[in-house]
Amino acid sequence: MYPYGYGYYFDPTYILIIIGVIITMIASSKMNSTFRRYSRVRCHCGLTGSQAAERILNQAGIYDVSVERVSGNLTDHYDPKNKVLRLSDATYGSDSIAAIGVAAHECGHAVQHQQGYAPLKIRGAMVPAVNLGSNLSWLFILGGVILGMNQTLLNVGILLFSLAVIFQLVTLPVEFNASSRALRILGSTGIMYEDEVGQTRKVLSAAALTYVAGAASALLSLLRLVILFGGRDND
């Protein structure tokens, strides 16, 4: 049985999930529209995203990171394990403000890796635990419900889920710092003019919103679990 009749009546905590979905949708829409807008603005340097990435990496003294194309839309990422910077189709061969800005952002992660940026190292160390916790958390919660609201199982499930929330929070400074590095690099190396750096800032700020939205959504989901199952007396 669900606590306080939640199994039979409308669960008011669903509003937290709805709020999280709305926040995520707004951030995603903002990111997509901003990227589309500046993907139509050509950068004066004439470099493609992949060429800009290689130049930035070389100027940073990073020669052991390869730049590859990856399929998908906005699937750009840096793989620290294999030292590969993967750029999506919309970024790899485009010479737009948006493409070069995204490529520079990913280069920012490569620079973080080279310099041993602490939040990046913490995030990387958390990945195995977060992956395991995300898969097991709902099993513990479901088991706790099935076994008559077993508080021990529920608490373990909530604790495991909280690892994913912490991971989202640790991700924020990593992403913000990578964007800051990217903007500094683009301006100081002359790859972009000052006004182009300003346009790139809009693209990266919109991208940052998606991470903020993800963290907010995860926090709301955790709050819902705590309200429903955290410390209930089950007579």
From TrEMBL:
Source domain of life: Bacteria
Protein keywords: Membrane, Transmembrane, Transmembrane helix
Pfam families: Zn_peptidase_2
Keyword tRNA processing included in the entry's annotation: no
Keyword Ubl conjugation part of the UniProt annotation: no
Bilayer-crossing regions: 6-27, 129-147, 153-174, 208-229
Protein name, UniProt field: Zinc metallopeptidase
